[in-house]
Amino acid sequence: MDTSGKMGPIATSCAQVVAASERPTARNFGERAARIGRLVELGIRCPRTVAVSIDAVGAEHGGAAMDVSPVLDQFEPRPLLSVRSSPRFSRCGGVGVFLWVGLNNAALPMLAERIGRKRALHAYKRHIRNFAYRVHEVEIDSPSRQPGQSTRECEVEVGRLLESFRRKVGTEFPQSPSEQLRAAVRTMAKGWNKPSARLLRTARGFSGETGLGLVVQEMVLCRSSRGMRVWSSQAINVETGRKDFRVGIGEQANSADIATADSEVALSRGWEDELRRIHDKLRRSLADEIQLRFADDGTDVFVLEYGVLQKSVAAEVRVAVELVQAGVIDKQDALLRIDPENLASLLHPQVSPEANNRVIAKGIAASPGAASGAIVFSSSAADVRAARSQGCILVRAETGPEDIRGMHIAQGVLTGRGGMTSHAAVIARGLGVPCVAGATNIDFWPQSGALVTDEGNIFREGDTITIDGTAGVVLEGAAPTLPPDYGRAVRQFLDWADCCRDLGIRANADTLDEVKIALRFGAEGVGLCRTEHMFFDESRLTVMREMIFASTPAERRQSLEKLLPMQRGDFLQLFQSLPGKPVCIRLLDPPLHEFLPHDQDELADLAEAIGLSLEQLTARAEELKEFNPMLGLRGVRLGISVPEIYEMQARAIFEAAAEATARGISVSPEIMVPLVTANREVVLVKRQIDQVAEEVRASTGVDFEFELGVMVETPRAALRAGELAANATFLSFGTNDLTQLTYGISRDDSARIVDEYVRLGVFPADPFSRIDREGVGELLQLAVSRGMDTRPDLLLSLCGEHAASADTIEFSRQAKFSYVSCSPFRVPIARLAAAQAAIRQRRAAG
Amino acid sequence: MDTSGKMGPIATSCAQVVAASERPTARNFGERAARIGRLVELGIRCPRTVAVSIDAVGAEHGGAAMDVSPVLDQFEPRPLLSVRSSPRFSRCGGVGVFLWVGLNNAALPMLAERIGRKRALHAYKRHIRNFAYRVHEVEIDSPSRQPGQSTRECEVEVGRLLESFRRKVGTEFPQSPSEQLRAAVRTMAKGWNKPSARLLRTARGFSGETGLGLVVQEMVLCRSSRGMRVWSSQAINVETGRKDFRVGIGEQANSADIATADSEVALSRGWEDELRRIHDKLRRSLADEIQLRFADDGTDVFVLEYGVLQKSVAAEVRVAVELVQAGVIDKQDALLRIDPENLASLLHPQVSPEANNRVIAKGIAASPGAASGAIVFSSSAADVRAARSQGCILVRAETGPEDIRGMHIAQGVLTGRGGMTSHAAVIARGLGVPCVAGATNIDFWPQSGALVTDEGNIFREGDTITIDGTAGVVLEGAAPTLPPDYGRAVRQFLDWADCCRDLGIRANADTLDEVKIALRFGAEGVGLCRTEHMFFDESRLTVMREMIFASTPAERRQSLEKLLPMQRGDFLQLFQSLPGKPVCIRLLDPPLHEFLPHDQDELADLAEAIGLSLEQLTARAEELKEFNPMLGLRGVRLGISVPEIYEMQARAIFEAAAEATARGISVSPEIMVPLVTANREVVLVKRQIDQVAEEVRASTGVDFEFELGVMVETPRAALRAGELAANATFLSFGTNDLTQLTYGISRDDSARIVDEYVRLGVFPADPFSRIDREGVGELLQLAVSRGMDTRPDLLLSLCGEHAASADTIEFSRQAKFSYVSCSPFRVPIARLAAAQAAIRQRRAAG
Description:
Two copies of one chain form a homodimer.
Chain A: E1 10-14, E2 17-19, H1 26-29, H2 31-41, E3 49-52, H3 54-62, H4 69-72, E4 81-87, E5 98-101, H5 108-115, H6 117-136, H7 151-169, H8 177-192, H9 195-203, E6 212-218, E7 229-236, E8 243-249, H10 269-286, E9 290-296, E10 301-308, H11 313-325, H12 331-337, E11 350-351, E12 359-362, E13 364-367, E14 370-376, H13 379-387, E15 392-396, H14 404-409, E16 412-415, H15 423-431, E17 435-437, E18 443-445, E19 450-452, E20 458-460, E21 464-468, E22 473-476, E23 481-482, H16 488-500, E24 504-508, H17 512-520, E25 526-530, H18 538-548, H19 553-577, E26 582-586, H20 600-610, H21 614-624, H22 636-641, H23 643-662, E27 668-673, H24 679-700, E28 707-712, H25 715-719, H26 721-724, E29 730-734, H27 735-743, H28 750-759, H29 776-790, E30 795-799, H30 806-814, E31 819-822, H31 827-844
Parallel strand pairs in A: 1-3, 14-15, 15-16, 16-17, 24-25, 24-31, 25-26, 26-27, 27-28, 28-29, 29-30, 30-31
Antiparallel strand pairs in A: 1-2, 3-6, 4-5, 4-6, 7-8, 7-9, 9-10, 11-23, 12-22, 13-17, 14-21, 18-19, 19-20, 21-22
Helix pairs in contact in A: 3-8, 5-6, 6-7, 11-12, 11-16, 12-16, 16-31, 18-19, 19-23, 23-24, 30-31
């Protein structure tokens, strides 16, 4: 068979009609046919191909017998054909290929001439056996092929198989090519509609009714081991995205029926050049890097089809950047290609795909990245490890503020309770520490210093484990990891994103370390600086506790005076590391009992340290206890009932601002009042803060500006935003708390409820992961419109766990927010998501 | 002086002008003048009177000297006058009276003729001394009056006083009546404007600028001990309101300068008849019962003024009812007179006003009424007392569900923490048990079984105390009490209220006892039956706990099958005691851990009872713990994650309904789903309940109807009410939880925050006592309008602590609610408040 001039163009067959001019679409002919159509259109050499439409295959299954002669007419008189499935969507799966269709007694000599007699006989044997099995569901006895079989023995075996076919099937093996082709089509149509195949499609997220087209292709013959050699090639490294031309052997799918070439591939220079040209053509046409499947006839290559290459995020980004640089796509197209969430894997080390450590627990992928270290059950144990420069993983049933120090020290965090918005998860993401939360299938025995797995294996303090916060699993021992990849291409890519977006991105950052990460990842300022974390340092915590146990305002003021220079130092460092950038500082928010010791030993130590009896201390600590701390004495309520605290904080901020200004650093402090419910709260705090500002201006002689705003976290604050905006120049929406209160669900206790609700479809999604537009969203919108009515230049923003999600960013743009503020490690994600939202809107507007 | 023909009419003096025809108004002349004007108008005999206007007194104080001759012109040539203050509002307080104005050397013989020479001389002495002291602030030496002083000695003393006046004051004692009157007016004007007097007015809630008028009246002289006798009379008993004509002596105010009559009063028949006629005239004119002040000249009575009688609520109601029956006022007027909150004192025994027991603690008046008993610190100690038929007072730092049993048993409750909506307060009001909550000035040492007061006094278990839940105080020992008074008049009055109101009133009732009280107090049905309270009985609690610790759904179902007949019995009793009346049953709401034991001993007992190890039990109990139980796994979330519970409850309700129906009792069960946030929750529960209903209809062969509704307690449910109404035929607003979530304030922890906020004016009122119209109210209104859009015949109601307040009732009517549901003991209050709201609206509409 001389194929060189006859490959392509593709012909399409819709039912009985063949029209060589019709360009097959995926909708009518399936994705494989459409892709081959594109190859033909680009003038790439393909085998001659006929596409059978989805309707025609459907009709065949429905009982209409297809007239295959118009298909056969497209090929030379004795065709040897492959019939492949071309489902509407390639990810649906398919039906096994039919090869050698048309091979019969008459065609055998021609095939023998092309690939040699023995190989031709082997092909015929496979064809007969396969036909019996696939079309008639009959297995024909055949001794396993012996390596040393002679040509003669092969001929005898063919005769035995034809005889066996007649006996077992009841008819002669069909010698007519059209009969063979019709049988192949009917078998594939039936296979596609089997219950098991339909179920599989459903499981993959497609409709059971998804249609199947077929692709009938002339086989490319070669004098190789099985008469046909299939190769694959790709032009880049899928991990890095760098140029790296490679040719491999065969294909994964349908490999059982495809001949494999030698494992070592040495292409002729001519082939490689041609393939590189084809890749380049397709790259320009498809604006992506693909994998080619091709066959050769010993001289030329014939492209059978191509597929989308599964690439790492780094590779995706590099490919996109290079396509822009090559003028194939524009920057906006490039930005739209990457799912922002996928960037997360670039920002942390990852467990290597080659790791084969045993999985000992599964939980929620609460903070991405990989970390190995020795198990510790407390912050103090983490201290000990850190002193010896040993890595550790903090393991707690659940975390609280007293664990933050340990979380700073530890390389990873594992908790037994809590979901995506548990304390551990929120803090870990903020710190960029890998975390697996809510690992419910292990038992925590912190008292006896042990973890017990489902299978009864015990891990003790000091045993090494690996946290895979990207996958949400815990591995035994130290698993191999890959370093984070955030190279030139990603930086370039995110710079483009910054040019496209119209929503500001700030970071939630409480410490200098977090500020550094935030700046490295491109944050434009700090949107939420939680001052409470500044008090958890051991030396400060004692003073803080002294303040809490003060029995008079004067005593309390004394303790606060010790804290003042510390806070002033904190803020000065912040301002210095963020010159000219806005810093939004939230006044003290958590209930005071969060700062108290939790066990008797610590209480006794504290009693000694501050000179109170243990009874007095215990009694006061009891008094501070609350049934529902989330709904208790915290936020501005604390600021109003113990006004000395906010006064000290305001003084620290202003003295730091004055000092920074005096040093020539441009400073933009924004002070935020938390947990507001009534306008009068803002009025009282504003009065106090304005007065402190005046005092500091007078005492330092430095003039500085600041803004005062309100954190909208309660439904009532949202409803009353019109009033609040009269005394606030900005509103920042704390969607975590707002979601908690709108639903009456605590995020700390939510995991088990919300998971079950999402599973049962009660909630379409976890409202702590994806903003609830119907409830929380309506409150936000009410607040925005009421606030803007009062103050048209009101600055609006959103901070909290939701902030960096694409969905929230889209919402925030629609709601005319100025910026969102998220954990430093999510800043790149937010930058891209914001760019995409802007591009999509511009495109939708035409 | 012949006064008989010259008494009245009143003349008024505005500045210098006197116009006898002008009727003095309280605005221009003060309340006393206006009242005397009314007496004159009614033809009641009064002394001749001239009113001096507020403007004239103000001008006098401002420096303008009043021309008193037009005043004096109204009296006979040698008048003896009293000058009394007539402030704009009588409750402002006043300035001391001037008596004997006009008494001088020339008038002395006339006076001597009227009342005897010695009495006349005594009056003159008092007048001179008083004038020096009040007008000139000079004390004139005078030996104390000796009882046996002769007329001669009196004459000598008058001379000495006139001499002493001249020497000490520097001028002669003024003999001119006009000079005396001018001095009196000036002195009183000055006294009214002293800083101390202004402060007193402010303290009483009036402006410091409130004006003063004066009343100048001819003195009624009598040959009595001091020349003038003042009496008071009233026609009813102020405690009961029953007719009970009494005459008393003197008056409380200004008593120092008024002569007192003998303590035994024997009126002539003529006087009594005349006074009864005057009372009757005034009752008809004022539509109220008053106290008269009158003087006599030995022959006739002259009315000096009248005052409003301070009556008990029972008396107020009886007076109102009798005024209606006498045709003086109509029923609506009667209904508007009584503050609904005041009815509370009729529904419980009260501490007698005569009690003089020492107050040992103060707190919040959380549930009205009085109760005495021995201190107990636990439900089990209460049990022991009850077994011995001894009364007891349950004393707890705070209460939880495990104390409900004790609260049922105890006669009163005292807690150290919590406000009006703390657990203790809510339950106590529901049970009608007197309660003082949040008594922060005593220390609770339950471990050592003692209470320690501020003053260091120790009360131990078994010591007797009295709870005054009406006043919010705790008394030492058993204080005397008055029984509750809810007589015929009150019933009549509330029947009228029922005729006027257009808002339904139901009761929150969980037990038969509560239902009985509710019916006695006029509830039209049960608006909230909290099924959880049915499980706190000891025998059921164990089965409930067995259910909670079940390790498989099958085991759980087994425990629930034991609970089923108990619940069915509960509901059958409910239906039987409320034939034809609606009963709204809330499915299980609280988090399961509320049913768990709280100490190790109880846990160990339970472990034994249900055959689990203490470790397993403790672990499971730990798992159920929540940071913020209010925001945790409760309400419909529990119903969905453990569907067997609601299934059992629905079955119990329906089987009871079927049985009641079969017995010919008309049954209207309404089933309410608590803590809804998403429509799908309602859909799932509705599907389950409808199925159970079908099963029970099929198995019993009885057809019964029921309604399914949603309790709107979360802001999200309010926002999504439009959707919810598609599957709910009624919405009941739980304003306690809705307020908690809208504000982000827990009612259990609210007392200290909210109290301080109300004190600082941050909140205008405690949002748990008075519905917050701006925030919570807006959510309610949104929910109503959205719900009605979906289902125009949606039944709307409100249950919770707010329900019986006048403010909430007004709001509920405006919002078109069908009914409110409150604690049984507040049903009469709600009935009256609803009537008042309806009447006020009709009147405002004209």
